[in-house]
Structures
1.
Amino acid sequence: MAFPTPVVAFVRPFSVTADRFGGFAESGTAIARVASARERILHGVRAPARSLALAIVDCPMDSSPRACEGRLGIYIMVASAHLRSGVRPSIHRRGRRRVGGSSRAISNSDFRFKRLIQIMKILRAKHLGMCFGVRDAIALALERRADAPLTSFGELVHNETVLDSLRSRGVQIEENAASISTSTVMVTAHGASEKKMSELRDRKFTVIEATCPLVHFAHRAVREFVQAGFHPVIVGKRDHVEVRGLTEDLAEFDVVLSEADVQALQERPRFGIAAQTTQPIARVWHLVHLIRNRFPNSEIRFTDTVCQPTKQRQSAAVELAAQCDVVIVVGGANSNNTRELVATCREFCPRVCHVQSALDLQMEWLSQAKTVGITAGTSTPDNIIDAVEHHLQQLAAMLDECGAPANFFNGVMAKT
């Protein structure tokens, strides 16, 4: 099999010398990059005996492993280096290899090539991560904490990393009003009922609202249903804090999340339907249609209260999952919108994994994957998403002394 003149770069995990040679080294591996597009040269990083080599074949002009926003979409060839122990390869160019002060033409005896493969491509969803409501709630909490001790009444957001950060900066978090020790209390981004707000004020707390404006919109929609004589039906999870806030002030209401819940509804002359803001809009519409079909003689009014950030992340997740072999969904274990993203992605991609941070990633998830997608829930900070993507890049490029993990490159590694 004939190849263009190979340009070879040696990599070593945890190398700190990569920067000297124009590459980059970040907490797990060093990946050499194109240093001169004109000559298509890669600088070498010293590698121990029996290490593996990456050979860039006919590398496009101006391309590098960080091209296309770090997706590592260049082509590589896996080779087994036949170099003497301790020999440091320097620049490889134009078919010659420099060894011990002399150079000679590279021949097939120097490297045993295997078939061409493509490094795993990493894609981000067009819309992902923290929404404006969560950002505003966190900013308000930190601003008020700077003025006085502060307690969040319940989890400000459903993301443990964010909550740990808030605790480290002095924000207390309590689920029970009787346990609150500060004079100032913050209602979370998920909102609360007037009943719960009055309970806090009766205890002489100064109450600060961090409720998302789009949750306020859902509260207004439900109040308008009741005032107009409609029986309120909420599409959502009955035990979710947002749904409790929407329903605790109501004398009568129903919560539905499945076809069975719709079948259990009693007939009413008028139904007013709203939704938990983080429900998938497709599910909401499906249940609305079921209710209309089940009660054709009832007047049914629907107000779409699913928030725009949720809709954007759901639609972007569908588009992403359809392109990927594996999708990584980043978000808190207790985050409803993150779990809904997981469920949506599983309809279009066979392998979907939910992680809270980069530490949860497992190499075996990526076995034989050519394209891996990343999406994230509305309470996931940018730095966590960036860390997950960076770690995926490391896993994609990681080569140990004996080769890649089992099945990771589908058997294309050269045998040493």
2.
Amino acid sequence: MDKSLGHEFIEIINNLRKLTHKHHHKNKIHSGEFMILGAIRGVIEDKREHHIEEPGIKVGELSELIHSTKPATSKMLKQVEEKGYIERVADKKDKRVVYIRLSDSGEIIMKDAMKRMGDFANRTIQRLGEEDTKELIRLMKKFYQALSEELNEKHTDNECHMNDESNINTKEHNDRKEI
């Protein structure tokens, strides 16, 4: 592969990251907060649609959903709770079970964020034009697929390598036991 093409690829990814970080302070909520509030909101909407009578989502379920550890999820929840965006609700039958749901303030901040995001998308699409936007979406889907495959291959390679090391260590251990 042409080194300049790889360099240009990394450079544009880095520039996009810098650009979003640079304008991050203009948002009322941080991207992590938006992500966790959006996940909570989405699960609650799904439960309502499927007539599941639960007042929110459990921390463990949320952790799985956002692919995060329980301690990291709890830390983020504490931050958004301090801002008044979520509330904790004890289960009526089992008080040990606690659900998380958006507060009225959380609902308002999410509606505002979704509106601003939609407006931003529309303005960007206007600048790019419909055809270029469709092409960008097609390429981003292809990029996502390639990245996903690459990361899964790396993960699988690491697991195989770890299994090889485990097998070697087990063989060495068995050899030592024979002596």
3.
Amino acid sequence: MEYRQNLLAQDRRISTIKKIKLIISLCFLIPACAIFKKNPKLQYKAGHALLRLNHLDKAYYYFQRAVENNPQFFKAYSRLGDVMLLKGQTDGAIEFYDKAIAINPDHIDSCVNLAHTLLPGATYEKSLLLLHKFIKPAAYLEIGVQAGKSIAVVDKNTIAVGVDPEPKISYPITDNTKIFAVTSDKFFEDFDVKKELGSDTVDFSFIDGLHTFEQVLKDFINVEKYSRNDTVVCIHDCLPLNNHTSRSQEITSFWTGDVWKIVQVLKKYRADLNYATIAAPPSGLGLVTNLDPKSTILSDNFDKIISEFRHLDYNYGYKERLSAFNVIENDWEVIKEHIKSKSRKPSKAA
């Protein structure tokens, strides 16, 4: 598991001086814990020092004592999850992260670690990079550029168009990349998309803009107008963590919005499309193929769809969501075969 390996690597990167300081601190913490047996803060500190030194069983003992003395100690539950993850016991890690989040839904460490435990392997950025290399798009369209991390991976020969009302580019981009500092609605209304792409159609598109269901639906409708049957469209954040982090309003630090509703819409209204969610951390990567630029089903039913799905709550369990969101394995060979087998079927009439 890649995320587990990263946690282990963090321990190996501890300097000798830091290790000595941790050992010295334990010389005080462990006796103190023996004296003050009901002090969860001391027990947590001892457990954390032991965890940093990779003494997992001893760390587990002190974190367990901490939650026994303070059942609301969400940070200790989260660290217990870390211990279980490092020991390769993912079910146990998930259980402890869930307990931490149940106490504090906004605990970012628990949310991030749980997301990576549920979706092991390379992140969605790696999937995007591999997709670029496989598709070799002549024209690429990205909605939601932010710092430019994902658009920076395009090939120098690809005409790339990025759309973001407030781009903060900090990654190097190619000379063939154009950034439009406008909303996606404004871009599709005011600009000649074909001219900017240097093509009548887009080969590959990534939607990662405003994290609301309504806007993602608009963006998908507009992107499909410039697509072909074999165009590939990716949508970020299609596999949320839980109810708290998947709402239209941002109430937690780890937040993916209600983008996930687009999956249910496409499954219900556009059965002609081929849809899958790549199980890429932290929140899934939607993969749509077999597009039909002539279809008006979504635009004709836009108001109806918004009304139908706006108040839908996310209530899927970890196993249930696998089928509900057409999840496929986060393995490049699986992803590649899915595209090859699904993207060249004859389109059905809208």
4.
Amino acid sequence: MKQKEHAKLYFFVDESGDPYFYNRDGEYVVGKEGCSKILIMGMIKVEEPENLRKPLNLVREEIRKDEYLQSVPSFSRSMQSFHATDDVPEIREKVYKVIKEFDFKSEFIVARKREDVFTSRHKKKPNIFYDDIVSKLFENQLHKAEENIIYFSVRQPGQASSDGRGHPICYFNF
């Protein structure tokens, strides 16, 4: 048996876009306002997540002490988790400066939302489409470590996404 490259690997997974093709009335809506033409599934892979968590917590503390940033609408959310579409530019800049120093690997799958494939391969079920993309993302990953720990972004209750259909925005809580 081949030796594993790592004892333990951590994966953090998030998506951009959505796995939906039809609205509640069964109308095909891909590419129309509120429904993306693609689903991007991405992940970062690290051996020591604490090496990411500690610097992000330091940024959070810096933001917490900043009187100006305390007054921005996204302040309370930023204290829980950072999100590029919600945070003001001043917070994003601080986070990006820290992230660029991180040691991690990342991979992404960009899936075009083709109705013919969705119908034949995924049986018109968004969850099967989503699971298929996740499977492809991890296809050549999980054999590299003795133990794999996978975190999927968590959904914040009460947060509406930009798709206008009430699907919540996803966040990581490090």
